[in-house]
Fold this sequence. Notes:
Layout: H1 18-43, E1 52-62, E2 67-76, E3 85-90, H2 95-109, E4 116-122, H3 127-135, H4 148-166, E5 172-178, H5 180-191, E6 198-202, H6 208-216, E7 226-232, H7 240-252, E8 261-266, H8 273-281
Helix pairs in contact: 3-5
Amino acid sequence: MINRTPSGFTKANRPINLHDFILLYVKKSMRFALLFLILIISVLPHEGIPTSRTIHHSWEYSEAIKDSFEIIFTEPLNADTSSSILLIYTDANILFGRKLRSYFERCWNKKLFLNYKLLGIGNSGKIPVKRRRDLTSKNRDHARKTSNKEFLSFFDLQIEELTLKYLNNIDSTLYTGHSFGGLFGLEHALRSNSSCDKYILFSPSIWMNKHQIIQEYKDDYSGAALFEIYAGKKEKYNLIQSSCMKFEKMAMEKPGLKEKFKYSIVPGNHISSVEQGLLLAFPSGLRIEYKK
């Protein structure tokens, strides 16, 4: 005899009620989600694992400027202690500084550039105003009556103190900066007794004050530092490309400078070109997308 249910259907083919259907759907969905998660974890690099450590983080006050600055000193967790390359950068606490640290953390995750140490200096408070005050020759902060000469002295002092404290042997010292930070790098190299071996500058604001740095720099270059300048392909509207070309023309006419100067145009705009410039300045084989 066939066992029938009250509804007239056999147990083998009776309709599934809504509760059973939802339960079955959830179970199958969880299985697929778990398999997909396992697949993603196995394919993607484990970039969530910390690859760097901050060996110094502080706020330092300058009596000359009457302001405080953020100092961030980082290195890879598995650092190469046999030699050290110190990479100094400005704008440590805004977008450029974060992009730079992010790029090197990805490189350190791939076991690249393990002998690099990053030393960043950033402004506080009204950063756009203070960047102009400290990183350019033109003084817009009339209330304080200071210029970037005071910041340059503070900058050199911090580098000297921190390198003596944390680094025993430095093979070379590099500087990198973006926009106003790039302009500051040029002024640091051309107007002071620079201790940096190389300047890697992204979209430097050479146009500032009607190309003041080009107009005022008349001497032949006697330093040993190398220069790499990168500008975005879409930076025609903001005078970056044209001013970089003017500086390149001046550099080619200066004995001692033209052999040490390199200018490259990379894909992207004022912001997205930074990643593309980093790929050329510090070749890693990493893939970085940018907004066209």
